[in-house]
Design a protein that fits this description.
With 564 residues, the chain is of the alpha/beta class. It contains 16 helices and 20 strands.
Length: 564
């Protein structure tokens, strides 16, 4: 058997491993994981909430941007929020789910406030009750028709939500949190039912048996050289779900954030697009606002368009750099509104009152993932998924700004409640699962070099702009590396992570090569037009099967020639 097709990443015998029983196992401590754990616990289930590393670290904790939600008492409506989401998704959204999520947003915000969240009022201050503008200030972000984006602590909305959810989980008697527990694989019985997971903690494997498992492990943007994500976003949950028999959907759709701090030797700090919403300009080294040449919305155009425009501009021989310019704005107000961004720039010698901030795009959000229904159920009985690891149908071909935290709250809650319902009927129990890993051939490979090569190839050949020729070469390279990555010596967790990244990269490049059109975040220079006649479809990977193209019924607006 091809090593890259091995069902499990490690040899084990569950009867010989330490084990633990829980009713619902939630993997991941971002917004979706915490929401799932709390929902399952409130429904009466005992929950084990496991984190890959420090439970406080996740993409949620790093999220500067806000959360999109229509609150009562405004001229905005959930239907308008849904319409914006559908427009950005370019025909591939699940319209029913979109309307459900946007309609549910106000309830989930109320949950956060009940648990202690405090959203900002005007000038970045904490809102106190109902004022003229409602319970909190609302910001306008790219592709939104109304100002509906809520923020907390200025540019630390994700951290506020993480802290509030973590505190609520910590207070709940039926939630137990376990940090430093790496997901190696999901455990399934002979009937293909998920019965638990194989975790690695402090140098030892452990079998966790559960009535239901909720994957909330995040995305895989770390397969790219330039990424705004926390280091743990390596696709472990996506890869484990595929090995367990779940379907993966639309992996070709990866959203690139156009504005991350770009300084040599400095981590790629995301600069929230709310900064552009407040009036910041994107300029080149000549001070020219070149985005207006591409779209009349300029800095408020969609992320994919801005990212492409920046990269094309940087390729011009007369352009040395691209910058975010805040020098014309009130520096004191910007410091109150975006304290994290201003402090990070200051730490690297940049004063927003006089200096332009050097920027470049970076991989930010992976839209595709583990296919789920509206309750978070996957094709594997007993396995649910929510948040960035999942492809629920909310985002389609492109994610509307600030919809990700909302999705985590709504879909995490649904998956948690469904997990509790299943766990009430299916009691956890140990079963015998035995696996002998494929024998490694002689020779070793340098894991660090292989990881760097993978990230460079994905960025160059399967990044913001793609071609069939480049994708063909990238897919072949990744498939070849995947065969030999089993031979990397040293740290087992690093080797497993690399294998997961290679698997996801291989499937991503295959999907991007197959979709010969440009739609949403997927842009092919050799097929720059959207093609609804051929590609109004989802691309679905299933283990042991060829990539499937599953056509969708055309939305009414497309059938009648309505706006796109």
């Amino acid at each position: 058997m091809h090593e890259a097709s091995a069902r499990y990443l490690v040899a084990f015998d569950t009867f010989r491993l330490p084990h633990h029983l829980t009713e619902v196992l939630v993997l991941g401590t971002g917004v979706a994981g915490y929401a799932a754990a709390l929902a399952a616990a409130e429904a009466g289930a005992r929950v084990l909430l496991a984190a890959k590393g420090d439970p406080a670290q996740s993409n949620t904790a790093w999220a500067q941007g806000g959360i999109a939600a229509v609150l009562p008492g405004t001229a905005d409506t959930p239907a308008a929020h849904a319409a914006d989401t559908l427009a950005v998704g370019q025909g591939l959204c699940d319209a029913g789910l979109v309307h459900e999520v946007t309609a549910e947003a106000a309830e989930r915000i109320a949950d956060l406030e009940r648990w202690g969240a405090r959203f900002d009022g005007e000038e970045g201050t904490t809102g106190e009750g109902e004022g003229a503008s409602g319970p909190s200030a609302r910001g306008l972000e790219a592709a939104h028709s109304h100002a509906r984006v809520l923020h907390a602590r200025g540019d630390a909305t994700g951290a506020e939500i993480r802290d509030v959810l973590a505190a609520a989980a910590g207070r709940h008697p039926r939630v137990h949190t376990w940090g430093g527990a790496y997901l190696v694989d999901l455990l399934t019985d002979p009937d293909g039912v998920c019965r638990g997971a194989l975790l690695y903690s402090r140098g030892h494997l452990r079998a966790i048996w559960a009535g239901a498992v909720v994957l909330a492990t995040g995305g895989f943007a770390q397969v790219y050289r330039e990424s705004s994500n926390w280091p743990g976003a390596s696709g472990d949950g996506v890869a484990a779900a595929w090995r367990a028999g779940a379907a993966l959907q639309d992996l070709e759709f990866v959203q690139f954030h156009p504005t991350t701090l770009y300084l040599a030797g400095v981590p790629r700090l995301l600069i929230t697009e709310a900064v552009r919403g407040e009036g910041a300009f994107v300029v080149d080294d000549h001070g020219r606002r070149f985005l207006l040449d591409h779209d009349p919305r300029g800095e408020l155009a969609s992320r994919d368009l801005i990212s492409r425009a920046i990269m094309r501009h940087l390729n011009r021989p007369d352009v040395a750099g691209v910058y975010l310019d805040l020098t014309h704005l009130d520096a004191a107000r910007m410091a109150r509104r975006f304290p994290g961004v201003v402090a990070s720039c200051r730490a690297h010698g940049l004063d927003i009152a006089r200096d332009r901030i050097p920027i470049r795009p970076a991989a930010h959000y992976t839209i595709g993932g583990v296919r789920t229904d509206a309750q978070g159920r996957t094709a594997v009985p007993g396995l649910l998924a929510a948040g960035e690891v999942a492809a629920s149908g909310l985002h389609g071909a492109n994610r509307l700004a600030s919809n990700s935290l909302l999705e985590g709250l709504v879909m995490g809650r649904r998956a948690g409640r469904e997990g509790a319902r299943r766990a009430a009927a299916v009691k956890p129990a140990p079963i015998g699962v035995r696996h002998a890993a494929a024998e490694a051939a002689a020779g070793v490979m340098d894991a660090d070099d292989l990881r760097a090569s993978l990230k460079a190839v994905l960025w160059r050949e399967a990044g913001i702009e793609r071609t069939g020729a480049h994708l063909t070469g990238a897919h072949a390279a990744v498939a070849a590396w995947e065969r030999f990555a089993w031979r990397t010596p040293g740290d087992a967790e690093a080797r497993w992570t690399l294998l997961n990244m290679l698997l996801v990269a291989r499937l991503l490049t295959e999907a991007a090569l197959t979709r010969t059109e440009s739609r949403g975040t997927h842009f092919r220079r050799d097929a720059p037009q959207r093609d609804d006649a051929r590609w109004l479809a989802r691309l679905v990977h299933r283990r042991g099967e060829a990539l499937a193209v599953e056509p969708l019924a055309a939305p009414a607006a497309l059938v009648t020639g309505g706006p796109r």
